Amino acid sequence: MSVFSQQDSTVVPVEEEEDFSMYDNLGFADGDAKRYCTSKVFDLSPAKLISFGFDLEGPATLVTDSFPGVGNNGGFGPSESRYRGVGGVRFGANIPVISRNDIIIQVGATYWQHQFYEEENPKLALAENPVNQTIRSNGLRTTGLNTTIFKPFNEKHFALFQASGDLNGDYNFSNMGNLDRTRISAAAIFGWKKHDRRMVGVGISRTYRVGELNYIPIVLVNWTAPNRKWGVEALAPARVHVRRTFSSRSLLLLGYELEGNSYFLAGNNALSDDRFIELRRSELRIRAVYERSLKNFIWISLQAGLRYNYAFEVDEFQDGNEFFRGFFGDQPYLMENTLGNTFYTMISINLVSP
What we know:
Layout: E1 48-57, E2 60-64, E3 79-100, E4 103-118, H1 124-128, H2 130-138, E5 140-152, E6 157-169, E7 183-195, E8 198-207, E9 214-224, E10 230-236, E11 239-247, E12 250-265, E13 277-295, E14 298-316, E15 338-339, E16 342-352
Antiparallel strand pairs: 1-3, 1-16, 2-3, 2-15, 3-4, 4-5, 5-6, 6-7, 7-8, 8-9, 9-10, 10-11, 11-12, 12-13, 13-14, 14-16
């Protein structure tokens, strides 16, 4: 039987001197673990996980060229229309599906609407032009899916990939048209991140922002000044902004964004599916954007500026095959149109990334 008794407190135990030589070969458990740079830079405008907004452009005049007829369809002369404005909802979502130190993958969806609000007394010639007719009656829509992949290689180098597929046209949800007309855009960037205030990169983009297919070199710059009050957010030439940070909950962006796409038109008999007619829309938005947190991760975004028309032409494909004009091609347009410049505003409510 064992007996336990209280230790004699008058006896002071002798402590043995620790042998530190046993730690000579000891290393940290993650000493050999590879380190990667992150996709974040101090004070960048918050990434929007879900966004819902409304865009409204002011009055503008659309002057369309003559529309040639085919077969039994006669041609139509030039026309002019004065619109009270152009507006529509905008929805976007970008959700991370994989978020690890060595890779981040996001998938998203987009829906944009452009509805043309016309004056009460349009000229008679306006109704005769099928391009004007379908724009006025049906508007323009974009429905798309996209993905973004951020792949760091080490603490300083990374690659960024973006791709999207957009169905653009004068369709509605009951008749979205042929999915073969989906337009694919993509971008690839190789970059350097020296520290958490600067990230730069160079790459190439396959884009429809200029209204039609083109291949354009791109430059990425995300930079924050040492005082953390000023910065630059740019993916040139698509968009460039100077940022003024007031606090962790509010900021102001000043700059521009080039916005556009190519839209199939098939809204009436003169614009039938077998003619493969597309509207090449592109515009430059010179703007100020104010963003502020309403509560936690719910932010409001207010923007206003000048909408400058870059392109509003119409192409017709031969045998339905898209051709590449680029900046130097001399293929003639089916219609050369002019859309007047105007001011615009947009408001959106956003759920942002922590």
